[in-house]
Amino acid sequence: MSSGPKYMRYLLFAAVGLAIVFFVSRSAIPIPENIRSKLNPTNYKDTVTSQPPSHNDAAPPNPPVKDIPAASSAPTAGRVNATFVTLARNSDVWDIAKSIRTVEDRFNRNYHYDWVFLNDKPFDKTFKKVTTSLASGNTHYGVIPTEHWSYPEWIDQEKAKKVREEMGQKKIIYGDSESYRHMCRYESGFFFRHPLMLNYEYYWRVEPSIELFCDISFDPFRFMKEKNKKYSFVLSLYEYFDTIPTLWDSAKKFMGNHPEHIAEGNAMDFLSDDGGKTYNKCHFWSNFEVGSLEWLRSKQYIDYFESLDRDGGFFYERWGDAPVHSIAAGVMLKKEEIHFFDEIAYYHIPFTHCPTTEQKRLDLKCHCNPEENFDWKGYSCTSRWFQVNGMEKPEGAENQS
Ligand SMILES: Nc1nc2c(ncn2[C@@H]2O[C@H](COP(=O)(O)OP(=O)(O)O)[C@@H](O)[C@H]2O)c(=O)[nH]1
Ligand SMILES: [Mg+2]
């Protein structure tokens, strides 16, 4: 009888057919394994408490490093213990999405460094979903402890409110904003102490709506570590004086009380034209920073922040974290520990850093308009940085002033 083998043949066809359907359905949408698992919401890391999390929560094992271009093999032989860090509100989601995309396209797609997001309120599902899908490394979401985003007990809140009203009437930028002041104080003294940040050595701060214009063909974190750099910048400028009338007095008081924290061979001449008597208002623009978390967590920096914080200018004036970080770096670091990253072409409204040297722009596939480069314009302090360090300005700088 032939019914037995025929039956077996049908079964075999059915099995092969099923196997083909299964294979096609698996491979039709080519989502890489690591992204697929990242899109599972249970894989977001949330840290809400102010307690340090376990090592796993704070810095989970790094994903495999893929696609590192051979040309950059020397500086990227291994990754550094570092993370991107972004302070943001839920409403910033689409603006930070742009920033993540530009950072990934120009750099992080080859490195997969982690990304820490911090907020004074819990991040919502959309924020987590969108940012996790765009970032190629692990993402972590932290809520800021209330004591880091509120008034210290020594602040007279009535006085602070009056200042906000007055500064609002004078149309000083963010002069009337209470949240902006908490933000500046947080970036000045606390982000590096958030539990999610504790296991990292270096950070790269990224704000919403920034743009990178050139390929980054090396690992800036690794550069910082290997060259023993503690702080870096791409843009520098003069601060709006009405936001910091007494900041320099407060910094001088700290220097007087803590001569042991002042570095020999520091960059005081970048900050002051008279050996420290007065502040010339030059500062590094802190919406971009790659820096050492260990330096910010050091006794010298914490002593500095606490001394400034006691003086109340975060609330009675509107001290920005940019001049606060810059004064710290200029006074407590050696000049050589601060680095200007010319190769990192960058935009944050309203200023652009675009490398002056044409060959550099071509080699790095830059898409910035060199005429928009702010470095050598009158309101930039980068010429002064070059002068203080005895560095020669690149050819063509004179045509961009
Ligand atoms: N969570 C949170 N983030 C804020 C708040 N205000 C500002 N930020 C973030 O702090 C950073 C600086 O704020 P931004 O509005 O860009 O200030 P600007 O660059 O000085 O104009 C950005 O990363 C913002 O997303 C706030 O009230 N809450
Ligand atoms: Mg900004």
UniProtKB/TrEMBL annotation:
GO biological process assignments: cell wall mannoprotein biosynthetic process; protein N-linked glycosylation; protein O-linked glycosylation
Transmembrane annotation, as ranges: none
Residue span of region Disordered: 40-74
Keywords annotated in UniProt: Glycosyltransferase, Transferase
GO MF annotations, alphabetized: alpha-1,2-mannosyltransferase activity
Superkingdom of the organism of origin: Eukaryota
Segments of skewed composition (Polar residues): 40-54
GO cellular component terms listed in the entry, alphabetical order: Golgi apparatus; membrane
Active site feature: 289 (nucleophile)
Residues making up the signal peptide according to the UniProt record: none
Entry-linked Gene3D superfamilies: Spore Coat Polysaccharide Biosynthesis Protein SpsA, Chain A
Family, as annotated: Belongs to the glycosyltransferase 15 family.
Protein name stated in the entry: Alpha-1,2-mannosyltransferase (Kre2), putative
